[in-house]
């Protein structure tokens, strides 16, 4: 699925949002659409139809197909665990998550790795190997406005 | 290169210098380096500044502070990844014929560069102003704060790829603590037992506190000149390779670990550039210096330059040894992990002192060639004159 809106890759209130949040977000005027979908519990990324690949949210044009343009497309298919870390201490975050928390790097089909939270005790991720199937936790993604993943076996 | 390292100087590292500002830290090191080189202040025609504001001194501020009259200045992005590049640029200024004597200098207050720290959401203000995230992959909106977050991610990826336990980083920490014990200026001189290391708390698992470099104040300076223009024999720059960039490169990783935008393909090529361009063989290297803001970077550096194969760094360290009496003495001042977080300047100055035979109790006998090779691809070869 792609977003037909002409402003799908354009900044939407990003500067204002960043200021409202005391600039603790990276300046995301370029990935405002990405954030907008996260707030709806969905994961969308820039997609180059010419090479059939997603790109990170901050890359707005494909370097290999510069004139082809890109569109926002919903990320579907398998998500798989690549790597993860556990933060043991709380630091100021622009989202309502307290340590200890886990951040995972998750492989998506035809695209880059996406970072996101895995909420829950570290014991649930310990011992799981690379490639374990994961899902986007849509409810928590929507409530936090940032990617949250869970294990497909949950 | 025709330019040689004529003199070095650095301030004693301290966790907190309440008195000195960045310019004073840089200036103190500069004065020491001038004396070391036997060069007069007025001879300095070129100036390369590594860390400007905030926390350091911008090139114009430093020149005014020291009453210099320099004609060729440059100021680097204030990151340790470009420390070696500061030296290369200074040497190129001389090799080009533009100037005869160059001072490469840095000084910064630690609160502006908490490279080993974890407080706050980022590094300088850049994490808030770069669209793609901070310069070390910081992404506060998914909880990745401070530089060490992605270093921990790289270590976990390494563990998942090669099955090597992060606990084996103890050997890196122990080797550098052993060297630091013979460095009176090192901040962390006490050796840890393996049990003590395991008992240290994780900061961002799998990284423990001893795996992260301590915050420190730092002023460092290296004077470059032509051999014939200085009274003492300089240290030669035998080879160099610049900082590479692209989707397969990341600051806290070597290619192949799948960090940030890296593909994660384990079939990465050994980085031979500095050996190919210099004609120096890897087996000729007596001392290895590598960026170690976090301990796994030592593993990644050893593997990047082919001292051992992928996934074999822990075995290499166990079998060959990177301690002062080992087969490849590494970070012989205690490195960033134990001496101080000097953004790599401490390594370069230590290499010079070792090659001169001026490293005191930690002197490695008959060292002829030193390799500065960071896991992110910054590389230099130094040779005894």
Q: In DSSP terms, counting alpha (H) and pi (I) runs of 4 or more, how many helices of chain A?
A: 3
The description of the largest β-sheet of chain B is: 9 strands, mixed
One letter per element, helices H and strands E, the order of chain A comes to HHEEEEEEEHE
Structural class of chain A: alpha+beta
Estimate what percentage of residues of chain B fall within beta strands: 15-25%
**Secondary structure: helix percent of chain B:** 25-40%
Question: Which value, in Å, is the CA radius of gyration of chain B?
Answer: 19 Å
By DSSP, the count of extended strands of chain B is: 11
Outline the structure in words:
- The complex is a heterodimer of chains A (154) and B (385).
- With 154 residues, chain A is α+β, with helices and mostly antiparallel strands.
- Chain A has 2 domains: 10-74, no CATH class; 79-151, no CATH class.
- Chain A has helices at residues 14-20, 32-38, 138-144, and strands at 44-48, 53-54, 71-74, 79-87, 101-108, 113-118, 133-136, 148-151.
- The longest helix of chain A has 7 residues, at 14-20.
- Chain A is globular and about 45 Å long.
- Chain B has 385 residues and is of the alpha/beta class.
- Chain B is built from 12 helices and 11 strands.
- Chain B has helices at residues 22-37, 59-65, 83-95, 126-129, 148-162, 170-180, 194-199, 273-278, 296-304, 313-319, 335-338, 345-356; strands at 3-10, 46-49, 72-75, 101-108, 202-205, 207-208, 218-226, 235-241, 287-289, 369-373, 379-383.
- Chain B has a 9-stranded mixed sheet. A two-stranded antiparallel ribbon of chain B has the order 5-6.
- In chain B, helix 2 links the parallel strand 2 (46-49) and strand 3 (72-75).
- Classes of the chains: A alpha+beta (154), B alpha/beta (385).
- At the A-B interface, strand 4, strand 5 and strand 6 of A face helix 4, helix 5 and strand 5 of B.
């Amino acid at each position: 699925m792609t977003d037909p809106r002409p402003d799908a890759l354009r900044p939407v209130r990003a500067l204002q949002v960043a200021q409202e949040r005391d600039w603790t977000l990276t300046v995301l005027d370029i990935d405002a659409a990405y954030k907008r979908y996260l707030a709806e519990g969905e994961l969308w990324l820039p997609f180059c139809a010419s090479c059939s690949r997603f790109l990170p949210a901050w890359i707005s044009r494909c370097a290999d197909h510069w004139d082809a343009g890109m569109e926002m497309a919903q990320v579907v298919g398998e998500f798989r665990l690549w790597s993860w870390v556990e933060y043991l201490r709380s630091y100021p975050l622009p989202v309502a998550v307290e340590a200890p928390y886990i951040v995972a790097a998750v492989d998506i089909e035809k695209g880059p790795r996406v970072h996101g939270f895995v909420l829950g005790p570290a014991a649930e991720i310990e011992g799981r190997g690379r490639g374990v199937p994961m899902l986007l936790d849509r409810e928590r993604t929507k409530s936090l406005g940032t990617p949250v993943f869970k294990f497909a076996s949950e | 290169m025709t330019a040689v390292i004529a003199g070095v100087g650095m301030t004693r590292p301290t966790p907190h210098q309440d008195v000195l500002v960045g310019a004073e830290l840089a200036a103190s090191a500069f004065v020491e380096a001038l004396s070391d080189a036997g060069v007069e202040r007025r001879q300095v025609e070129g100036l390369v500044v590594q860390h400007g504001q905030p926390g350091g001194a911008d090139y114009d501020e430093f020149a005014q502070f020291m009453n210099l009259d320099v004609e060729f200045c440059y100021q680097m992005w204030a990151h340790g990844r470009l420390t070696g590049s500061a030296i290369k640029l200074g040497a190129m200024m001389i090799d080009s014929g533009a100037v005869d004597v160059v001072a490469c200098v840095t000084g910064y207050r630690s609160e502006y560069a908490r490279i080993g720290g974890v407080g706050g959401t980022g590094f300088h203000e850049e994490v808030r102003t770069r669209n793609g995230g901070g310069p070390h992959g910081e992404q506060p909106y998914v909880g990745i704060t401070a530089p060490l977050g992605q270093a921990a991610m790289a270590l976990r990826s390494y563990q998942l790829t090669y099955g090597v336990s992060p606990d084996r980083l103890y050997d890196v920490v122990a080797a550098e603590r052993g060297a630091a014990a013979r460095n009176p200026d090192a901040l962390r001189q006490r050796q840890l037992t393996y049990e003590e290391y395991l008992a240290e708390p994780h900061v961002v698992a799998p990284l423990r506190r001893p795996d992260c470099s301590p915050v420190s104040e730092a002023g460092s300076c290296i004077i470059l000149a032509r051999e014939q223009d200085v009274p003492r024999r300089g240290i030669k720059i035998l080879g160099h390779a610049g900082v590479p960039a692209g989707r397969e490169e990341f600051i806290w990783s070597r290619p192949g670990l799948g960090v940030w935008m890296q593909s994660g393909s384990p079939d990465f090529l050994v980085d031979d550039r500095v050996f190919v361009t210099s004609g120096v063989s890897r087996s000729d290297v007596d001392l290895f210096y590598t960026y170690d803001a976090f301990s796994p970077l030592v593993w990644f550096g050893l593997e990047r330059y082919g001292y051992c194969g992928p996934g074999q760094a822990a075995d290499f360290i166990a079998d060959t040894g990177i301690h002062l009496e080992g087969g490849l003495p590494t970070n012989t001042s205690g490195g960033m992990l134990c001496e101080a977080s000097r953004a790599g300047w401490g390594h370069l100055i230590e290499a010079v002192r070792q090659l001169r035979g001026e490293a005191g109790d930690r002197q490695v006998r008959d060292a002829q060639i030193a390799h500065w090779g960071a896991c992110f691809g910054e590389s230099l070869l130094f040779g005894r004159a």
